[in-house]
Amino acid sequence: MLCFINASGSKRQQPLAKFEPQRRYATLVALAIEGMATVTDEIIDLHDRILGKLFNAAKNKHQQQFQASGKAINAKVRLYGHIGQALIDAKQSGSDPFAAIEAVMSWDAFAESVTEAQKLAQPEDFDFLHRIGESYATLRRYAPEFLDVLKLRAAPAAKNALDAIEVLRGMNTNNARKVPADPPTDFIKPRWQKLVMTDTGIDRRYYELCALSELKNALRSGDIWVQGSRQFKDFEDYLVPPEKFASLKQSSELPLGVATDCDQYLHDRLTLLETQLATVNRMAQANDLPDAIITESGLKITPLDATVPDAAQALIDQMAMVLPHVKITELLLEVDEWTGFTRHFIHLKAGDLAKDKKLLLTTILADAINLGLTKMAESCPGTTYAKLAWLQAWHIRDETYSTALAELVNAQFRHPFAEHWGDGTTSSSDGQKQQGRKHRPYQPEVWKQPRTDFLHPHLRPVRAVSHQGGQRRRARLDLRARWPAVPRVRPAHRGTLHRHGRLHRSCLCPDAPARFPLRAAYPRPGRHQALHPQGRYCL
């Protein structure tokens, strides 16, 4: 039950036995559906990893074989270089070319070297796909059950690939060893053609491998979706149903911030433009434009003050010289000694802690800066992609990120230095100057105030409930953003800021069970979009 609660994003363990029967069963059904979606996504993700690992292993073995024959190839190239030079000299002097070859090496040795060169030569379509067949037994251990449990649907572009999957399902059910006559083959790429289509017919192994590979690619592109999945569901499920959209449009109840009638919208905007131009003209004549003046030479705008004053910049430079230059992983290790946040990154199966904390923090850092495991492994001597990928697969998950972030937030809240910024009940903006637009008539009492006070007169802060590290706190969220059409949000009650809709993968607070909390925003529908307009990070 706890697994289902964690999967559904709940941060509290509700005593279900105390619920009334209708609510209790509804909660269990919701958690079961959410748990099934999580398990389905994990199964597909695991299949993707297995295929990627098999392809990488085949590619590495192919490269190792080519490198092993590199010395022999180089020796043959040098030998034929000498023979070619001897033939050129014989042509220029008019001597016997066969005698020139025998002057370099005997004729029997030359014939033997030609045979060896033919063995070393690779075909024109030099590829490693033929080695994928060596891992066919690995896929057969789970592929029949994997295909049997997924409810797949396809767009027209991937219909042929889905038909091939249906053929594989039928073969698995009937325990057939040969591919039936006239199977779908339009999905087979030219790269696979020579392996699948042989002189004796269709090769069963490579046909199945090609179909599973195309299934992986179609799931990534969205051409094939899975019913009951969260990450691989149909794109149409994210949209308003056509029937509901038509009903809302007919009743003029579409939740849009603008008029749906084009003529009315243009009339309103032109009216607003004329009003604003008249206001600017009147203010310009009275020389009352804020931070600007219109003269015969044109418009002059007063430049903004420097974000950092010169005196403050000198202090910043002085402090930067005092601070030691340390590696970020060493800094994270020191923070871990204070807080112990790495103890939450336990093994998925055994529940053990990571043996190498530095390697664990390197993997987390690769997620944090969006560098990726491959480039991180190349940047860190002594680190391999395999080690980082293993740690990411077994120790780094949504729930481990959430609990570790909660540990850091609580440690920062308990630090005495944090008291200088208040008791944690309110939250201020970051102080940056955001570009905004005025959305109400000119009011002198407003324009005489500082610039940041009238940038967003249409927005107001709201109070909402936040749960960080198991502690229930109220945070005053300032929803001032650079986009004016932000819907107002009612305060959440007895829940978290993330109880509505799907979540942003860019959220930094512990309530967002994002696997990669520092990656770019991932647009999702739902009320959580209102709390994070245009992908702004969570407070």
From the structure above, extract its key features.
6% strand, two-stranded antiparallel sheet, 539 residues, mainly alpha
Describe this entry's structure for a reader:
There is one protein chain. With 539 residues, this protein is mostly helical. Among the domains are: 2-63 and 128-237, no CATH class; 69-120; 262-301, no CATH class; 310-396, no CATH class. Helix content is 49%, strand content 6%. It has helices at 2-7, 21-68, 70-93, 97-104, 107-120, 136-140, 143-149, 159-174, 190-196, 204-221, 242-250, 262-285, 310-322, 328-339, 357-368, 373-379, 385-395, 398-414, 444-447, 528-531; strands spanning 152-154, 197-198, 201-202, 224-226, 292-295, 298-301, 462-468, 471-477. The strands form four sheets. It has a two-stranded antiparallel ribbon. A two-stranded antiparallel sheet has the order 2-3. The chain has a two-stranded antiparallel ribbon with strand order 5-6. A hairpin with a 2-residue loop joins strand 5 and strand 6. It is extended and about 105 Å long. One of its GO terms (molecular function) is DNA binding. InterPro entries: Tn3-like_transpos, Tn3_Tnp_DDE_dom. This is Tn3 transposase DDE domain-containing protein.
